[in-house]
Amino acid sequence: MKNSFIYPIIFMALVTAVFIAVLAGLNFVTADTIAFNKQIQLQQKILYIFDILPEGGSEKDIERVFNDNVIEKEWGGVKGFALVQGGREKAYAVPISGAGLWGSITGYIGLSNDYTKIIGIEFVTQSETPGLGGRISENSYKNQYRGIDISGKTDNFIISSPQPGSNIDAIAGATQTSAAVVKIVNENLKAFLEEVE
């Protein structure tokens, strides 16, 4: 009777070992491709912020435009990117992160080289509700962040509707996610601008 339980356990252990080996092998074989795809996605997001994303957006075009125009830059302990054209730094992409409604949100905010305008925003990771809070990744929402004057401000760079003086429209049905993004941007921008002063 005891032997009848041993064979299924041995069989399950062998099947498990085979599947683990197959998955580990697939992970090893695709690791470089996954890393390359993540790199291209990040480059695409940075180019979107700087508004120089090539039309068509093939991987080769994205990589070429990125390598020709963007360098990594560090401000104190903050690592980001700089748009360099004609030998001059024209704009910056600074990392932002914080808590959304359902999880953390990370991304980059674009700033002019004199830190007086927000020129764009892009999200790298977010786990907001698809179709509602997830709309923060749509161009219609992100395009609102182009050309916002923040000169002379020390906080509340972004104000979401329906508050007075708003410069960004909240996403209908996702006001908590919209408020979370505004908070993330304002807190991260304040900390960054204090760092560079």
Q: What do these coordinates show?
A:
The protein is α+β, with helices and mostly antiparallel strands. It has a domain at 70-196. 43% of the residues lie in helices and 23% in strands. The protein is built from 4 helices and 6 strands. A 6-stranded antiparallel beta sheet has the order 1-2-3-4-5-6, with helices on both faces. A hairpin with a 4-residue loop joins strand 3 and strand 4. Helix 1 (3-49) crosses helix 2. The N and C termini lie far apart (77 Å).
Give a concise summary:
With 197 residues, this protein is α+β, with helices and mostly antiparallel strands.
Defining key terms:
197 residues, alpha+beta, six-stranded antiparallel β-sheet, 4 helices
